[in-house]
Amino acid sequence: MSEDNVRVSGVEQLEPNKVKIMFSIGPDRFEKAVADTYEENKRRLRIPGFRAGKAPRKLIEARYGKDFFYEDAINNILPAVYEEMLTSVADELEPVSRPIFKLESADTAKGAEFSAEVWVKPEAVVSSYTGLEYPRINMEVTEDDIDREIAFEREKNARYSPVSERGLKNGDITRINFEGFIDGVPFDGGKSEDYELVIGSGRFIPGFEEQMIGMTVGETRLVDVNFPDDYHAEHLKGKPARFEVTLNEAHEKEVPEADDDFAQNVSEFDTFAEYREDMRERLLERREHDAKREKEEFIITELVKRTEVNVPEVMIGAECEHIIQNFERSLYSQGMSFDRFMESSGHTEESLFQSYLEPARRNVTARLALETVAKKEGFTATEEDIDAELNSMTADYGLDVEKLKETLTKRERDSMVLDIIVQKALKHVTENAVEIEPSA
User: Fold this and answer.
1) Domain 7-120 belongs to what topology?
2) pLDDT for 45-72, tens place per residue?
3) Hey, which of 67, 99, 226, 420 has its CA 20 to 30 A from 316?
4) Ranges of H-type helices in 224-312
5) Sign of CA pseudo-dihedral 245, 246, 248, 252
6) Where are the alpha helices (DSSP H) in 98-223?
7) pLDDT at residue number 396
8) CATH fold group of domain 159-254
9) Which fold has domain 271-436?
């Protein structure tokens, strides 16, 4: 083995799914790392009698110590060394956490020895994965379903006209300034300007919106309410409050009629009857898609019940963060900021994290179970599978397939391969599940 290669000298089991890996590099490679560090830093060193960058390395080491460049050299080389070490143990260990490194020894004449403590992916034990039961899912599309969807589309296409010659009524969209007082003193979070509120939406404290009925644009009105006993802000629970509210503007929503004109405005159809039939077909497609996902969820739940695995908390934490990030993106797509959600829901970062722990544990367990199924069934990812996945990615983001292939790292490719075989495992488990009548 070349002196430049990383050598793994041992793996110590610290606790279930946590190990310490001992590895080292030879003197030639470590000496090169130290020499490179000297070259990078010599111009910043000031040695009496020498111009900047001209002091010999041996003189610097004699003055400041033999190991003067060791720390920077190790910091520069360790990430690459660690990645090489992981490649050599990839068949036995798969770290799922950042390593905690320790320098065991270092000498340019002998090389450098390191240790890394990491959590590693556990292997799940699945008692059975065929014949899993799921209840029959109703995929019928009713006339009421169609009516509700069309009503939603009508709402989306509503027009808004200013309200100027009458007082507010339920359904009006307003922009208001307000400030709240308790015992005549303003309280934190009780003031806002140009706030959008739909009258009758129930977004504000009970009684607030009702007392705004009849207001006209430009009017200021005092609104008296009581905060609910279960209000999320502890200092406001059950307290009586008075708000000074000014109506800046108001608009009335006009929902279009369900007729041929509406169908022509929102679709390629000439008649409302054609539009309604197309809506039926689209709802059926959506229902079939949702039913597929619902079926998978039932089956995954049953699979998790049949799985034994000691999941490291670090994996659950990482999945929690992933769920929260997806939730944040979902909020953004709906026009709501994450901070606004946190404020209105009364959640803290810690309470939100805690609320996702069990879903995260389930997700991780399910993934590990499917990896076990894939291994038992011998599923692999062919080049055709990988190309299909890459084509799907490029279609979504407008990338060139060949360029994407060139930029993929080994770790990214391995992750893609694992995703493919996990999907094959899910398909296998799903196709071998048994439909039963839902319980009454």
Assistant:
1) Alpha-Beta Plaits (3.30.70)
2) 888 888 888 889 999 888 899 999 999 9
3) 420
4) 260-266, 272-305
5) positive
6) 143-156, 208-212
7) 67
8) Chitinase A; domain 3 (3.10.50)
9) Trigger factor, domain 2 (1.10.3120)
